[in-house]
Design a protein that fits this description.
Layout: H1 2-16, H2 37-59, E1 60-61, E2 73-75, E3 80-81, H3 83-105, H4 108-122, H5 131-153, H6 163-181, H7 200-227, H8 235-240, H9 242-246
Antiparallel strand pairs: 1-2, 2-3
Helix pairs in contact: 1-6, 1-7, 2-4, 3-4, 3-5, 4-5, 4-6, 5-6, 6-7
Length: 268
């Protein structure tokens, strides 16, 4: 799911183009900071809190599934899992992602994004990983997070919030890691030898499929919207800022206030 969403965003960004002032004539990128780093970090933390419920709902089947394996709950594939095991692995994934990203960036935004990367990188195997393995995979995802974002930026893609990197790139990374560390584990409930098992080739093929399922419709839909002039706001609105164009209140008066330049019309 993350890979599909992340590469859908990549298709959109290719047609949307970079923000004004993001890239110089020689192709080098400029850093455009957000308005409020504390609120950005709080927002990322809220997403992480939401992941606890989100992952529980994705992995654990309610109702009769609780009795399929005695006192154990079941995953959507019919394999056993417990709430405590899943919760602990999520915690290890958050911790590993935060630590790995912070050690290599010293940046609060990428630190909390690293927590998301940690969860996403381990989501495919949260029902089978040992806690230590979840931590190691998440840590490595946090380490490669910023370099992956830089790689994208050097190719002229302006991924302002890191959506392509955190969800797309790390989503594919998590799929492949499951093929490495979960190889041979039954992919469905059933007796050994009677059900398919996880393998690296299958996970790589799946990663390629999910890439295409996200990128192709993302690029196609945004290409149509771009041709219709519906994808991007007018240049004047972008220069003034969408806060001031859409909301008649100054959320950040220190950035200009009444002394700033106000458009006569949002389209100007």
């Amino acid at each position: 799911m993350h890979a599909v969403a992340g590469f859908f965003a990549l298709g959109v960004l290719i047609n949307l183009g970079p923000r004004i002032g993001k890239f110089n004539a020689d192709g080098t990128a400029n850093h455009i900071p957000g308005h409020n780093m504390p609120l950005t970090v709080v927002g990322l933390m809220l997403i992480i809190v939401g992941f606890w419920g989100f992952l529980m709902a994705c992995v654990i089947v309610p109702g009769e599934a609780w009795s399929w394996f005695g006192d154990k709950a079941s995953t959507i594939y019919g394999t056993p899992i417990t709430l405590s095991a899943l919760s602990f692995n999520i915690l290890m994934a958050i911790s590993g992602g935060i630590i790995g990203s912070w050690l290599f960036t010293r940046d609060p935004f990428w630190m909390m994004s690293g927590a998301l990367a940690g969860i996403i990188s381990t989501a495919s195997g949260l029902d089978i990983y040992f806690p230590a393995m979840a931590f190691i995979i998440a840590f490595s995802a946090g380490v490669i997070l910023k370099p992956c974002a830089d790689f994208l930026e050097r190719r002229g893609i302006d991924d302002a919030v890191g959506a392509v990197t955190v969800h797309g790139t790390i989503g594919l990374y998590g799929l492949i890691m499951l093929g490495v560390w979960g190889s041979g584990f039954p992919a469905l409930g059933g007796a050994a030898g009677e059900v398919p098992t996880i393998n690296l080739i299958g996970q790589i093929v799946g990663a390629a499929v999910f890439f295409l399922l996200g990128f192709v419709p993302g690029f196609g839909c945004s290409w149509i919207l771009n041709k219709l002039g519906m994808l991007r706001v007018p240049k004047g609105a972008e220069l003034v800022g969408m806060d001031r164009v859409k909301v008649p209140a100054e959320g950040y008066p220190e950035w200009g206030g009444d002394a700033g330049i106000k458009p006569a019309h949002p389209a100007e």
